[in-house]
TrEMBL record:
Bilayer-crossing regions: none
The organism's taxonomic lineage, starting at the top: Eukaryota, Metazoa, Chordata, Craniata, Vertebrata
N-terminal signal peptide: 1-22
Pfam family, one: OLF
PANTHER family per UniProt: OLFACTOMEDIN-LIKE PROTEIN 1, OLFACTOMEDIN-RELATED
Disulfide bond positions: 150-332
Coiled-coil ranges (or none): 32-134
Record's subcellular location: Secreted
Gene (name only): OLFML1
Protein name, UniProt field: Olfactomedin-like domain-containing protein
Keyword set includes Coiled coil: yes
Length: 416
């Protein structure tokens, strides 16, 4: 609108200027200059208005072109969407027909439940048959291990004898359980490369100015307190290794054999003795090693080793926990786990595992140690003497154990 008014204003100004120039007074000259300036400004604004109009026209054209492109794209998308909707509609119709067909073919829910129950029962029966077959194989193999004179179960830990106080708070001492051996061995601490050998228990207990022991240097350090001597060989956990067991000849101090125990060494075997990862043991059936398995909830695992080659003969997973345990020992293939508190107290045996499956933990009473306050760092059973050699807070202690004949016969019918 302003662009249309401007030419009229310019015409009026020109007429006015012409009339003023004809009069020729000074005041008229000033008015003429003012009007000329205003006229120039109006011309400039007129040019700017023309430019803006052209720019807006171009933008309007570009916007129209873009909108037409969008509309074209939307039309294509609408066509595709319509096609997809039609396809989905067809598939829904087909599925409805198939569902109607299946509803007519599927049996009643009660029949399905009966078939599922039957299938579950068949699976359980198959698993039970498989377990029975494994149990039969294991029981038959265990009979090959059983000593003809080994048919006893622990009933009481009946007496206590404090033999001596020697060495550190933690340690291990024991006798060689092989026949015609009276030697006593002492390994003080939780890491070293030597041990003391005494010719007899009397020599160990004597207080004399001259040493009654022989110090034996070992080729490698040991760790923990789970060592044993058997038939003149020391079996121990090699330090700085997770699961290596060494067999060292004590006559010359050389390594006779070694082995790596699969799956062991990842967890302390007893939570109250965190420095012991492998615990060796000897009973009437031979050489054993005990360890805890984190993949089995920290439960204890017992492994039968060949005393000559250290080859693994059999392995059993037990239900006995390593938590709050301070030690364990085996009698005739039955594992007895000793529990306590971290502050020390009366040690008890309230979990056992029998490889022959004739003694059960839930059927056996809790066995108490005679001493009111104990803190064992190692417990070793001597099958010939029926005694436990324990290290109680630096005191070398002997416990007498009482056993009874276990006349229960293994029922092989469960494995048939």
């Amino acid at each position: 609108m302003s662009c249309r008014v401007v030419p009229l204003l310019l015409l009026c100004l020109c007429l006015t200027v012409g009339s003023v120039q004809s009069q020729g007074s000074p005041q008229d000259a000033f008015i003429i200059q003012y009007l000329e300036r205003r006229l120039a400004q109006m011309e400039e604004r007129l040019n700017q208005c023309d430019q803006n109009t052209a720019s807006l026209t171009q933008k309007n054209y570009d916007l129209s072109t873009e909108i037409r492109g969008y509309l074209s794209t939307l039309n294509v998308m609408r066509s595709e969407m319509k096609s997809q909707v039609d396809t989905v509609s067809m598939r829904v119709d087909r599925m409805e027909r198939e569902m109607e067909y299946l509803e007519n073919k599927i049996p009643n829910q009660s029949d399905i439940e009966m078939e599922e129950a039957l299938l579950e029962q068949q699976i359980k029966d198959a698993e039970l048959d498989q377990l029975k077959k494994k149990a039969k194989i294991k029981v038959e193999n265990v009979f090959c291990l059983t000593s003809p004179d080994c048919n006893t179960a622990l009933t009481q830990i009946k007496s206590l004898k404090i033999v001596k106080r020697a060495g550190d708070t933690y340690g291990s001492w024991f006798k060689d359980p092989s026949e015609q051996s009276a030697k006593v061995y002492l390994l003080s601490g939780i890491r070293n490369n030597s041990l003391l050998e005494y010719v007899s228990l009397q020599s160990f207990t004597e207080r004399a100015t001259t040493p009654k022991s022989r110090e034996i240097q070992l080729p490698f350090h040991w760790q923990g307190t789970g060592h044993v001597v058997y038939n003149g060989f020391l079996y121990y956990h090699k330090a700085d290794t997770p699961n290596q067991i060494l067999k060292v000849d004590l006559l010359n101090g050389t390594v006779a054999d070694s082995t790596l125990l699969p799956g062991a060494g990842r967890l302390p075997v007893y939570s109250l003795n965190p420095n012991t990862y492998l615990d060796m043991a000897v009973d009437e059936l031979g050489l054993w090693v005990i360890h805890a398995d984190p993949e089995y909830g920290g439960n204890l695992v017992i492994t039968k080793l060949d005393k000559g080659t250290l080859a693994v003969e059999y392995t059993w997973d037990t239900q006995c926990k390593s938590h709050d345990a301070e030690g364990a020992f085996l009698i005739c293939g039955t594992l007895y786990v000793v529990y306590n508190t971290r502050y020390g107290g009366r040690s008890t045996v309230h979990c056992l595992y029998d490889i022959h499956d004739t003694i059960h933990s839930d059927e056996s009473p809790v066995l108490f140690f005679p001493k009111r306050y104990t803190s064992h760092s190692s417990i070793h059973y001597h099958p010939g003497e029926k005694q436990l050699y324990a290290w109680d807070d630096g005191y070398q202690t002997i416990y007498k154990v009482e056993t009874r004949r276990n006349d229960q016969v293994i029922d092989l019918s469960i494995a048939e």
